[in-house]
Structure formats: structure tokens, C-alpha cells
Amino acid sequence: MTPTSRPQPMLMLKLTLVALFWGGTFVAGRTVAQHLPAMTAAFGRYLVAAVLLVGVAFHREGGLKRLNREQWLTTAALGATGIALYNICFFAALAHMPAGRTALIVSLNPIMTAVLASIVFRERLGGLRWAGIALALFGAGVVVTRGDLLGTLHNVSQSLGPGEGLMAIAVLGWACYTLVSRKAGETLTPIAAITWATLWGLLFLLLGSLHELGSIQWAEVPWQVWAALLYLGAFGTVVAFLWFYQGVQQLGPSRTAVFTNLVPVFGIALSALILREPILISMLVGGSITAFGVYLTNRVNINPAQSPNAGE
């Protein structure tokens, strides 16, 4: 099936489920973040993912590709930015702020990536895409300030706390991951790139979490946390990546990327349904503005290796 042929209903269902799985990562992440430190939580997620991805690499590609020096450095950079840094900030932020708000802030990933690409690669964005960036940032401001933009100018601390700051770092980390993945995609298949990136990230997270492991009362960790980690590693990472990449192969990157606009919608809905988080008018208004801004900005093809499996 070529990217121009008519998509199959089953594939459309899979891509919708991908958005649902990624939306669910905010609920699962919030559950984990309330019981485990950020580095340990991220390590648990990617321990599950690494085991499954290595199995997929052996099943589909006959094993792990041997890397040259440049590929070692590139995949290490992927692991440091999109796996380690992003997920440490992701879980740390969820310990401070509701899952629904986090999902809306994460929707700014394409905006940060576009801006960073314009700086690093001198990419011309054009007036329409700059307008989209401005709209998305304005919408995010409405969400973060709960609709009180003017009040925040007088007292920034009433809207911006540790959670928002951590998510800003996470979004920057993911933008760096996306740009580095362009280089990885030149010589590595998506499965090889994300598997090696995950293994690097797992190593970084293990080293960072060693000081946390001994202080955790493991017997008191509820089963919901273990279930959430399994969900994050299996469905929120591996299954979502494989189905997303299947969409890239059959529909093309741009048409597949459209489904990621559903992620904050599912994130807010699941947060309200499962965690009983309130849905504020400012979230709906700001989220809609941000989504339209992201739509205007995200009008370029993405590399299959840039699938947001690590970040969502």
C-alpha cells in the first residue's frame, strides 16, 4: 500500500488507538509519579520497553545492528535527550501538576521543534508557520495561566510553578531528540534507532536512579503503579511506536502525524474520567487555540525515526 492509496479501516483504528495510548501515558505517569521518584519511574518504564524492543529487533531485523562511532554518538544523544531527559522531567512534572494540563503543554512539542530547527538548520518557516507558532504559544499561555494572562503579568508565581518549568525542559529535550533523529534516520532503520536510543537512555536512567532505589519502600508500592509502568513501557512506548511507524509506511509521515493532534484530547478526557480531574474552560479554549497553531506549524514531513513514542 502506497502513501497515496486509500487507508484501511484497521490502520485508521490502530492510529486512533496510538493517540489513545499516548493520551493514557499522562494518567499512568501521574499514578507512577505519586509513588516513585522521577528517575526510578523513567527507568521502570524503559526497562519494560527495552526488553520488548530488543525482542522486536531480533524478530524483524535479525538482531541489533552493529554501530559505527558516529552511530554510537547519535543514538547516545537520542537516549540522553528523548529518553532520559524528557522522561525525568515528564514524571517530575506529573508529581506537581495535573495530567490534563501536562498533556496540553506537551502538545507544544512540534512548536519547539520547528523553532529549534529554524535556529540550528536555518530552516525557513514562512509567515503562516510563524503565525501558527504565535497562536500555539498564546493558547498555551491561556492554559497555563488558567485564562488569567493579565493577572500572571503581575504575579508570575500564581501560574508558573515547578511542574510547568519541568515540562518546558521536557519539551526542549524532545525537540532536541527530534532533530538528532534526522541524523540517525540517515543510516539506521527506525526500529534500530529507537532500540539503541532506549538502551542508552536505560543506562543513563539506571546510573541516575541508583541513589533512589535503596530509599524506596518497595513492599508499599501499590499494584496500580506496577500496572501503570507496564502500560507505559508496552502500550505507551512499544506498541504505539510500531503502529505509528506502520502508519508512516502506508499513509506517509504527514497524514500519520495528524493523529497526534488527538493525544491532548484523549489525555484530558482520560484524566477527567479516571483521575477525576476538572476540565476548565481555559483548558478547552487554550487547548483548541494551541491545536490550531500546531496544525499550522506542523506542515512538513517527519522522519519515521521521529515517532514520538519516547516522549508521550
Overview of this structure, please?
50% of the residues are buried. The protein starts with 8 loop residues before the first helix and ends in a 15-residue tail after the last helix. The protein is 74% helix and 0% strand. It is an all-alpha fold and 312 residues long. The chain has one domain (9-306).
Describe the secondary structure blueprint for this structure.
Layout lengths: L8 H25 L4 H24 L7 H26 L4 H8 L2 H12 L5 H19 L4 H6 L7 H23 L5 H24 L9 H29 L1 H5 L5 H12 L6 H17 L15
Helix pairs in contact: 1-3, 1-4, 1-10, 1-12, 2-3, 2-9, 2-10, 3-8, 3-9, 4-12, 5-8, 6-13
Number of helices: 13
Task: Count the beta strands.
Answer: 0
User: Sheet with the most strands?
Assistant: none
- pLDDT below 50 for ≥5 consecutive residues: which ranges? 301-311
Question: What portion of residues is helical?
Answer: over 70%
- The helix/strand class is mainly alpha
Number of domains: 1
Oligomeric state, counting identical vs distinct chains: single chain
Query: How confident overall, as mean pLDDT?
Result: 84
Strand content: under 5%
Radius of gyration: 19 Å
